[in-house]
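> tool_call: predict_assembly(chains=two)
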Amino acid sequence: MKNPKRPLMLAVLALGVFMSLPSWGNGMILIPAGSFRMPAFLDKTPRKVNSFYLDKHPVTNAEYLSFVEQHPEWHKSSVKKIFADANYLEYWSGDLDFDKTSGASSPVVRVSWYAARAYCASLGKRLPVIDEWEYVGQMPFKDKNDLKTVILEWYGQSSEWPLPSVMKRSANTAGIYDQHGVIWEWVEDFNSSMVTGESRADAALDRNLFCGGGASSAADPSDYAAFMRYAFRSSLQAKYTVKNLGFRCAKDKD
Amino acid sequence: MKYAAVKKSLIGIAALVFAVSAYAQEKIKGEEKAILTDAPDVPPPITRKHATKVIVDLETKEVKMRLADGVDYTFWTFGGKVPGKFIRIREGDQVEFHLHNHPSSKLPHNIDLHAVTGQGGGAEGSFTAPGHSSTFNFKALNPGLYVYHCATAPVGMHIANGMYGLILVEPKEGMPKVDKEFYVMQSEFYTKGKYGAPGLQPFSMTKAVEEKADYVVFNGNVGALVGDNAIKAKVGEKVRMFVGNGGPNLVSSFHVIGEIFDRVYIEGGKLVNENVQTTLVPAGGSAIVEFKLDTAGTFILVDHSIFRAFNKGALGMLKVEGEHVKEIYSGKTEDGIYQPEGGVIQEVGESAPKIIPAKNIQESIARGKRIYESSCFACHQTNGQGLPGAFPPLAKSDFLNKNKSKSISAVVHGMDGKVTVNGKEYDSIMPAQVLTDDEISNVLNYVYSAWGNSKKTVTPDEVKAIRASGRVK
């Protein structure tokens, strides 16, 4: 535990390469440019997304451990209160040791937005923005599982603990794992006013979402799933840590 | 001069009246923690004669519990049960409300109390991420029985999963004394499986939108007020039921079989009606019913939209012990035979409304475009260009133009495995589309008419034939 491999260095070297060796750590996958319809938005105009790299799976406890080893300012004992709330890495038993019941390859959770950004930046990466995340998030699974069902069923279950290891389920058609059904994920622009605490009044705020009066036509169940992501993101503050909220990193193509 | 003097004194009186009414608002004296109870219990009546500061702590928690025998459901709750905790305060009270969202919650939650005057009924001030708490304050201006519920997007789903309860704001003068008080709340559940389908049942959004409830229940599950769980009282006692309806969709026709409500506070407000058989309880609304128990028996609580009671669970029991007063109800005194004439059972045939098929190819294409834009667009993209490496193009597609029946089959039955389109190989999955034969013919006519394709036409009959013969290899 004290001296894990350094999978991250390899991951950095392997940027842009379609990696098929999961044990090597968090390879990135090149997501082709394209357009998509933002779920639950009144404006159905296709939104363009440029090509970018996205981590194949959420950042794991082992990966996060090697980050905090290099960056003592992110130890749970020394993190500044304005950058993470009191429950930062709450389930870790020490600064450099995560809970044994929560495996090395389970997603790291209980990290703030600041921490997630710092992690990505340390590898020359960044957090994905909502458009990027949602664009990849609506690509279907490689196996036959229906995306909507997986998402809605996960939302309908009590939280699981300890969290399962990453990459235990089907990847989507782009080769990305675990966007749905394991944890929530931080995004760079999580606080971009998607839903307010009083979501039913949002239609009056011209926020382009099916809420309040505007919700009357939200008949697509995938919109429902998206609502919950928007609602979840808007309930957060940058220093918050949550037991089922982790992250993955992205990177520009050039 | 005289006029001016009168005017001046009038203003003076008006000012005085205003000052008195402002002064009449009660002073807040002291502080207390609200007693909260789970249904069917109600917190004790408020005996104090002054307004106070009341502290309410309520926790939102997502828990797996029984919905019916053999059927579980992941409920989202206020306080760990459905319905949520009963809150009892007094008119004029100043409430400090703390909403705590349990760390194991998957979702943020908030609370809209219909007893609150102000933005969102508290929803805006109580929006809380998992593992966090929010505090807001309100003044109880209007007495009455009010529903509270979660109002986080998607609001319907948070309510459908069990996030509602009742808050009673007792009038300053208090409520007439009764012997027993009960908390009864109706609501309905929409599950993937039908009524009684075993196992952990997920929420069905489709059924909720269509308002086709599988379960209609009192106090959160089938049988919550039945058998050993029945509410109990004695002959001679006066009972009061605080009846709420969480919805999310249905209005309740609340009735107690074999009883007549002596008094009903209509919609939980001040207006009292007397001698009522059935009272309406709106979704997101309430009623208070009172009646004296004149004879013993088991009295059945129902939603008198009666299939809900006997087929969906909206049934409870009030067991009344004591004397069977024969003068009030005798029970059966004679058993005879009656032979009526006629009595043939009649039935009327039913048929679903017919959707008129497209009159011509132009109309079919126009309808097909709408289907494309809702069902196909996400993968095959706006102009049928597809996504390289993931979804094959439909524009100028050699596969499409060469293989009409395979294309129809792909929409009807789905498709997977390797396929070469315009020289490129694709290996992904197309799910079968839930569309009618007409709709599939329309959408394919649209695709064939667009983006340089071969303008082939597809008839509903061709679709029907392929649907019957199975996947085209």
